[in-house]
Amino acid sequence: METLFIYIAKSSGLIALFFLAYYFLLRKETFFTANRWFLLAGLLTSVILPWIVFTTIVWVEPTPTDFDWSKIPIRPVQEESFEINWYLIAAIAYIIGIILFFAQFALDFYNLKRILKGKTAHQQADHKFIDLNENIAPFSYFNTIVYNSSMYSETEMESILEHEKIHSEQYHTIDVLITRFFCILFWFNPFIWLYKKAILQNLEFIADSEASKNISDKKAYQLTLLKITTHENYVALTNHFYQSLIKKRIVMLNKNQSNKRNSLKYALVIPALVAFVFFFQVKVIAQEKTNTKVESEVKSETTNLTSFKMERDLANVSKGKEIYIDGEKSSEGDLAKLNSNDIIKMDIIKNSNNPMMLVTTKNTNQHTKTVKIIDNDIYIDGVKSTKADMDKLDPKEIATMNVNKNNDKQEIRIITKKFPKIGDDNTTVKTTQTANDPTSKNDLIKKSIIIVNGTVLPANVSLDDINPAKIESMTVYNSTQAVLKYGNVGGNDVIEIVTKKIIPETNQNSTWKVGYGSNGSKTIIERTIDDKKIDYKKAVIIIDGKLSDYQTFEKINPNNIESIMQSDIKNASEENKKIAVDKYGKKALNGIIDVKYKNN
């Protein structure tokens, strides 16, 4: 409803703009025909231009999302008091006005038809002439001209008929009907009534100017105008010979033609229209610049617990391990020669027989093999694959790689970042270290709250107390993400662990959650009962960072989903509620469901 009122306000403003331009710039000029089209163009512009919106995108730096929750005041939620819906009241008043003025229009149209009904019309060329005995001022309606010949002399009738023929030939009735409809729609706008008066007056100027060219006695024509002013009975919706402001008509009839240079005044309205578009019809959309590096690090934190950054002495780390630099087998001496600034990452692959260190430098050829092995059984994301499939993998997409020796064969098990999974008996932890980040695995775990199957573990319980073989999935949430999902966590990160268990039967009122099959080969969607009882049909749905709806959510192919994070905002702290409502509106109180697609 607000959009409708904004549109009406813009249209009313444009009507006022064109009327003021006509009144102050064109009213005294003798460009009567040009003025007619200018005024009609103003009405047409007023209904079309407000619909035209130009969009411009402004790129802005990402807004930091770190908050000091302790400094945000807590305000109790107050019940909403009764408020008057002024939009509804205004809409009712507007509709009532339209009904009343349309009823008046219908009554005028009925009276016109009543006058014309059953009357004998004489056809002459393209015109129909009706001679009445009623005391009515002469008028024309489309190609029908009505008059009372008994009230005027032959000379006066000649002037009257020439005048009305101009109205008929130039279809001035259309102008009259258009202005009446605009008066119905914009009845509350005083400028539309002035606009109507200006259009009708200009039509009379046109008819007077053209008729006087076909009449030899111009003075007699003006005397006829004066005589007609005594007859005030005229019919609405018509072009009638009688019009008030007779003095202005006579003045304009005798006025010299305006200089053609004055026609440049029509162009003066263009800057005003440009300003209108610039201020009211340009929609600015702010979009944050994508910080690929930050997103990559956050995703790595939340989807893969097996990758940590450490700063250690290279010599100590490499002891007892086979060293591969950019896919080539190397020695500790080759490793010592490397500049630490050239090292992108180090992968430590642990197994009981043959631990390895894989070093990736800035000079890495992306198509270089990570490990050169000839006779192997290769499994990628649990699916048996070939050496060619392994060669096609981007090293940056590998989450873990396990090499197990069995007699003369080696078995390689690779888990990509698209299928993060911890808990396989043969799975080992992959760690990553850089020279610039001192954060260690142990430091991260010590600062984190551990939640297993929705239950917060005591502070004296660590990850070492959990059997890895029982783990189905593990996700790390940074402090900001943890607040949205679990409420106030004291600025700590959260490690969420789901153990292997029988998937419960579906429930019609349950919410949605992502799980991983025990074979690690594919992602599945589990519809499970959640303690938060978030109704996804009422919740805010975000799919790949864009607002969506539950209908689209229901149609998603589960195999395309990487993760779903649900946030129970209703039971969160007041400050967190405020942040969510400010961003997504009151609908956020029903919960937020954030869906991430897999990277294809």
From TrEMBL:
Keywords: Membrane, Transmembrane, Transmembrane helix. The chain crosses the membrane at residues 6-25, 37-60, 86-107, 177-195. The keyword Transmembrane applies. Residues 150-253 form the Peptidase M56 domain. InterPro entries: Beta-lactam_resp_regulator, Peptidase_M56. The keyword Transmembrane helix applies. This is BlaR1 peptidase M56. It comes from Flavobacterium aquicola.
